[in-house]
Amino acid sequence: MPTASDSSPLSSRGGLANLLILILPPMFWAGNFVVGRAVNGVIPPLTLSFGRWLIALLCILPFAWQTMRRDRLRYLNIRWQLLLISAIGVGAFNTLIYTGLTTTTATNALLLNSFIPILIVLFGALFYHQHLSLRQGIALLTSFSGVLIIVSQGQWQRLSSLSFSQGDLIIFSAMVCWALYTLWLRRIPADIDRIGLMGMQILIGVILLLPLFAWEYLSGQTIRHFDGEVAAAFAYVGIFPSVLAYLLYNLGVDRAGAARAGLFIHLMPAFGAMLSVLFLGEHLHLYQVFGIGAIFAGIILASRRPR
Predict the structure, then answer these.
(1) 146 within some domain
(2) Using an 8 Å Cβ cutoff, are 173 and 34 in contact?
(3) What is the pTM of this model?
(4) How many domains does one find in the chain?
């Protein structure tokens, strides 16, 4: 099992390189939310999830196959842990996200997604006796306040007007899955190659998703039309938020700990705002600047070396 604890400072294990490892996954996942909403009504959720991970499997296999063969006996020794993290981190999480996005708003999805760091800390304290320092608690609240500023557009009364639907409950169940995935990932021995481990997770996830995709297809829910935009959507979700983001997140959890790595998920609404400016022609507002600043302040506070 990993010997590093969540209390070890991020700066002690690679500095800027580790910071980049933790920043890139939420950027890729923010794009995943944008694409998931864009193809809503064109690609059924189970089809999108299965296609995503099938593409990811084809991308990672050339690099992971030799390691997967070499470590197959080690995978057997941790088979139940491996099955659990594959089922909830690959199979369930994104399927629930794409399903929930069909009946909820982007604002609600981003708000609910930002509960992941809080759930990681809560579950870690309840089930794994992990302790949260005062500095980490302040950092968590500071970062989450930045999320609320972005979601509320700087007007706190907007939060009271938010309504939640069945889709929101589905999204929240996905957040629970990711919090557990992050905590259980820390229990995988640190000396197991992460590329091979990711390949096994994706392979198991694809096998689990296959019957669900078949059920959806046979029930008449198919891709409405296949064009360049649909192909680009599959390519993006199959490569960036899948292979690259998961590999980097796995590495970040191993190096920085579950609580600190989970805190960086608060960057997703910040990146969502930036991506909207770059690709959707939206304007950057002052409340977004303040929100992004609060998120980064919380992350910097959590990443500082304690005295």
Answers:
(1) yes
(2) no
(3) 0.79
(4) 1
